[in-house]
User: Which sequence fits this backbone?
């Protein structure tokens, strides 16, 4: 197999050989927005071409970033996909973005065009994006009693932005509807279903599942210090994700189109920033719908992971941080990502 040539990687990113790391980052972001498969309007052939192009762009960016920042960013290193596939448990730095999706990874695209991939350590397939406005719009058009808060987040959104102002209950109903829809259309096996990820599954997706000890989600929050979706550096580097403007990581004032930033090593986008994501669990670890009362006074709250466009604190952005909200709560900083259980 031919050893990758960095000159080819520069060319893949439309740059002259010797361009700076900052120029590489800027060009990567522009190309990622241009070639995002979900932004293509030229049919299935165009979407397939865009997917292959994005794979090449991600690989080129990964190699150039490792070559240009070997010391300053060694704590955010990415292991090559081939090595990652041979390890059952990811190492400390394996989760830092950007990372190419392993070739052995299972993939599936559903009836709404949502793409799902397998994640090491989890038995479910994860949506690579947070649920988009366009996905939720189909659901809201098919079901008569959907709360309309999502239509008025307080700022402009496009179809590819993550839907917000949806409660845990709203998100769960979306999963139930999508499951029933695809079973009726015979696009989903009868044993398969959609749901929200568990807190533990979300940890595997962000790359820390192998290192978290037992305990409730609340117990696990902030245990792993200085570990972020982008690596271990603070503050977040430019292009790390969509966070509050005070973090200086991006130029979006509110939500951004899903996939606007580099995917992580699992091929998942926006696990840091953009919107908080609902998880199945109660924050206090209660196993039933009637949560156990704890001494903290935070009983009855559902887990939220990942930060959002209006958060910038070093604790809130940790990969291990758990936020919580009542399952009926709706906020312009809360959305959701779904997983597919194949049965």
Assistant:
């Amino acid at each position: 197999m031919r050893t990758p040539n960095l000159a080819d990687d520069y060319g893949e990113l439309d740059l002259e050989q010797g361009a700076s790391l900052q120029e590489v980052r800027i060009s990567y972001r522009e190309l990622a927005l241009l070639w995002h498969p979900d932004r293509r309007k030229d049919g299935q052939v165009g979407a397939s071409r865009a997917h292959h192009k994005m794979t090449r762009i991600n690989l080129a960016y990964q190699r150039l970033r490792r070559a240009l920042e070997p010391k300053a960013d060694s704590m955010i290193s990415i292991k090559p996909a081939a090595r990652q596939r041979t390890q059952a448990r990811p190492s400390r730095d394996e989760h830092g973005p950007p990372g190419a999706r392993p070739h052995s990874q299972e993939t599936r695209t559903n009836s709404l065009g949502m793409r799902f991939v397998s994640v090491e350590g989890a038995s479910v397939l994860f949506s690579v994006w947070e649920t988009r406005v366009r996905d939720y719009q189909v659901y809201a058009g098919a079901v008569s009693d959907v709360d309309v808060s999502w239509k008025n987040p307080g700022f402009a959104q496009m179809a590819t932005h993550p839907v917000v102002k949806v409660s845990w209950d709203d998100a769960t109903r979306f999963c139930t509807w999508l499951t029933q829809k695809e079973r009726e259309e015979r696009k989903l096996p009868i044993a398969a279903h959609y749901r929200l990820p568990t807190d533990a599954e979300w940890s595997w997706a962000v790359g820390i599942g192998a290192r978290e000890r037992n305990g409730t989600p609340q117990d696990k929050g902030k245990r792993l210090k200085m570990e972020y979706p982008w690596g271990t550096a603070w503050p977040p580097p430019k292009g790390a994700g969509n966070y509050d403007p005070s973090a200086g990581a991006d130029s979006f004032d509110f939500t951004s189109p899903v996939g606007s930033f580099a995917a992580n090593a699992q091929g998942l986008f926006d696990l840091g920033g953009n919107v908080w994501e609902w998880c199945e669990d109660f924050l206090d670890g209660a196993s039933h719908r009637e949560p156990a009362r704890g001494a903290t006074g935070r009983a009855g709250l559902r887990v939220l992971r990942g930060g959002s466009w209006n958060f910038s604190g070093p604790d809130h952005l940790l990969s291990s941080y758990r936020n919580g909200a009542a399952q009926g709560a709706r906020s312009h900083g809360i959305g959701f990502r779904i997983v597919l259980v194949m049965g």
About this structure: The radius of gyration is 19 Å. The helical segments are 6-12, 21-35, 43-68, 81-86, 133-142, 168-184, 199-206, 217-220. The chain has a mean pLDDT of 83.
